[in-house]
# Entry
Amino acid sequence: MKKIVPIDTDGAIVARMFGVPVRAWTPHMAEAPISVVPRDAAKKPCSGGAPHDHGGSEGAVRVVRGAAIHWQWQVRHNGLCLVREERVKAGDVLEVKSGLVHSMGDAGEREPLVTLHFYAGPIDHMIVYDINHQRTLMVDGSCGAWLPWDAPSLIRCMLPGIRSAGAFSEAARHDRASSSEAKASSHAAS
# Structure
């Protein structure tokens, strides 16, 4: 599992230290505390993470070693549609905008893939898509882009089907309304 290391410093300075072009950062990102996440994809060679977003955080991913396939997805008609696929190599930097649903995998080069992830703002939660079982999970921000079946405590909420991140707000509103109705019924019965 990845470790997120918060760094309370100017994101642009840290970005320059790791060779991430400052143009990849929006002005508010340069003022926000950032997280640096070293990731060695060799632990899961050629598999890649599940499609996911970063819970509203923005950032950049630098390919340090090897090469990756980067997939971008959109939720459409209760399904996940691939909208872009690109091959990125060592030295390349990917911009990760708020709301982007993406996944990455080792492209199978001689050197295993190693990436360095920068995020502005804390990653409180992530939406991760289980394509095989057609489920959408809201997971703790420390989970990363993996389906946490071996650590179920990281799952905050799971919805059937492939749903947009907004579906969790709708589900929470529905749960609060149901809870309020149950409390009112219980109170009226006493």
Observations:
- The two ends are 49 Å apart (CA to CA).
- The chain has one domain: 5-181.
- The first helix runs from residue 11 to 17.
